[in-house]
Design brief:
276 residues; five-stranded parallel β-sheet; globular
């Protein structure tokens, strides 16, 4: 019996300093393990307890751990998780399926064909973002993997009306808008983490799928899994989103990441005991 564990990364499994939410007294704060370095500086963390649990989880031959992220391949490959290296990884919100670190060309061709058929061109959407964003709060504009686009902004200065107008405009063109921290993402609607997760499940013969995520771009992934969890922070928590198979955790910040790995470990062990 194979259990597939597909987890979003940023603000779900790993946390930047700004996202740790260490609200307890300093002496009671958990010990942290740095799992990502960028430009010679530590960037992302897990608690040491979460790292130990993840190493235990990935050591189980019946578990397929699949890091699942909106990050590009290059951004993903900065991360060094404890435990057995993941054979499969989902990047670019489902646009890239990595097998032993190498992009799967057949999957990329399938994705490209569907986007060309169902969505407005990337160039049109990226151009609209640049034309309508205010330079007063726009800091960077990026295109990721020639699949989607995003802006880095000063969040507190971005008008809510602009986000809503952008979302309405994008919806008519087959795209989705998501605000995550300082980033405004515009992503083609068919570009989903769930589709890539189903492909990995097909290839591995997984009989049970588990997932976790914190943003609107993770909702399809959570709904596609047999059981899923979301932390007490993020877009999904802010709008009170849940579903019958999704557990809404009370924990926030890096403590939520630890609880998510703990839930994965319990559920995977439970699935194994039910195997014939």
């Amino acid at each position: 019996m194979t259990v597939l564990v597909a987890s979003d990364l940023d603000r779900t499994l790993i946390y930047s300093t700004a996202a740790l939410a260490l609200t307890m007294p300093d002496a009671a704060a958990p010990r942290l393990l740095c799992v990502e370095v960028h430009e010679s500086r530590p960037l992302s963390y897990m608690t040491e307890a979460a790292a130990a649990l993840l190493a235990e989880l990935t050591a189980d031959p019946g578990v397929v751990f699949v890091p699942t992220t909106t990050r590009t391949r290059k951004q993903y490959q900065r991360i060094r998780f404890p435990g057995r290296p993941a054979r499969y990884a989902i990047c670019a919100n489902g646009g890239q399926l990595l097998v032993d670190g190498v992009p799967d060309r057949d999957w990329r061709r399938q994705v490209a064909a569907r986007l060309a058929e169902e969505c407005a061109p990337l160039e049109e959407v990226h151009g609209h973002l640049l034309a309508t964003a205010d330079p007063a709060w726009l800091r960077k504009a990026r295109v990721a993997e020639d699949l989607f686009t995003y802006l880095v902004v000063e969040r507190e200065r971005v008008p809510d009306e602009w986000i809503k107008s952008l979302a309405d405009w994008a919806e008519d063109r087959g795209w989705t808008v998501s605000l995550q921290g300082r980033k405004v993402y515009a992503v083609p609607r068919p570009l989903t983490k769930s589709a890539a997760m189903r492909e990995v499940a097909r290839r591995t013969g997984a009989t049970t799928t588990l997932a976790a995520g914190d943003s609107l771009l993770d909702a399809d992934l959570l709904l596609a899994a047999d059981a899923a969890w979301r932390p007490g922070h993020g877009e999904l928590a802010d709008c009170g989103w849940t579903a019958p198979t999704v557990t809404a955790l009370a924990e926030r910040g890096v403590a939520a990441g630890e609880e998510i790995v703990r839930a994965f470990t319990r559920k995977a062990a439970g699935a194994a005991t039910l195997a014939p």
